[in-house]
Write a structure and sequence with these properties.
It contains ten helices and nine strands. By secondary structure, it is α/β, with parallel strands linked by helices. The longest helix is centred in the C-terminal third of the chain and has 34 residues, at 199-232. The strands form two sheets. A six-stranded mixed β-sheet has the order 1-2-3-4-6-9, sandwiched between helices. It has a three-stranded mixed β-sheet with strand order 5-7-8. The protein has a single domain (1-180, 199-256), classed as 2-enoyl-CoA Hydratase, Chain A, domain 1, CATH 3.90.226.
């Protein structure tokens, strides 16, 4: 894998690390492609019993690299970002995340598909889609209200304000909040515990827990992706991205 996405397998744990620390692990189309390939490889490899994802340099991921995102926008289902989203949404093996620092956009929505999530006490989560003139992705419009309740999900998705690790814990997004610097070790320990359990039983347990919602999740993801692509070319999105690069506050007052 590229230096921007590092992978390794040890004792049945397949570790994927987003490793672009100078950009807070902001994701490019190339990184999405590598992440999707890593998930496909891990799912197919019988030596892999658990998949763990983390970020390098004290951050999980700042979400999309906006310059790269606008240069290669995801305009159809073949876009690497959608391959990655479909990949983690359909994993059969246990999927664990270790989150420190920022978790923006897909950095938070992917956690809704994880089986175990551990966060550092200083972690900050952001769902900025509405602020960018866009809409939710990765079935977060379905899963976040189910997880956190409608009122709290509306606050997170509609206001798009950063929220703390404690808020994420209270909302059911993470399993535990740990001291910064100890999150990855704890996640590895939990992964190693999973590797000692019957692999087939774990896969079937995960399948049963997701069975009632899987079809609805797939349907929601497809509809979200269609709306998301439409919003990419909307006047509001153009204003939001222009304001970001011009380092000013966007003005949405002229749009209805």
């Amino acid at each position: 894998m590229s230096e921007a996405v590092r992978t390794g397998l040890a004792e049945g744990v397949f570790h994927i690390e987003m490793a672009r620390p100078e950009k807070k692990n902001a994701l490019t189309a190339g990184m999405y492609r590598m992440l999707a390939d890593a998930l496909t490889s891990a799912e197919a490899d019988p030596a892999v019993r658990v998949i763990l994802i983390s970020g390098a340099g004290g951050n999980f991921t700042a979400g999309n690299d906006l310059a790269d995102f606008l240069e290669t926008p995801p305009m159809d289902e073949s876009a690497p970002v959608f391959h990655f989203i479909n990949g983690f949404a359909n994993l059969q093996k246990p999927f664990v995340a270790a989150v420190e620092g920022v978790a923006v956009g897909v950095g938070t929505t992917m956690l809704l598909h994880c089986d175990l999530v551990y966060a550092g006490s200083a972690a900050r989560f952001v769902l900025p889609f509405a602020n960018l003139g866009l809409t939710p992705e990765a079935a977060s419009s379905l899963l976040l209200p189910l997880c956190a309740g409608h009122a709290r999900a509306a606050e997170m998705l509609m206001l798009g304000e950063p929220f703390s690790a404690q808020t994420a814990l209270d909302a059911g997004i993470v399993n535990a909040v740990l001291p910064d610097g100890h999150v990855l070790d704890h996640a590895f320990e939990r992964c190693r515990k999973l590797t000692t359990q019957p692999a087939a039983s774990l896969r079937l347990t995960k399948q049963l827990m997701k069975r009632a919602q899987q079809g609805l999740i797939s349907e929601t993801m497809k509809f979200e992706a269609e709306v998301f692509r439409q919003r990419l070319v909307s006047p509001e999105a153009r204003e939001a991205f222009a304001a970001f690069f011009e380092k000013r506050k966007p003005d949405f007052s002229k749009f209805n």
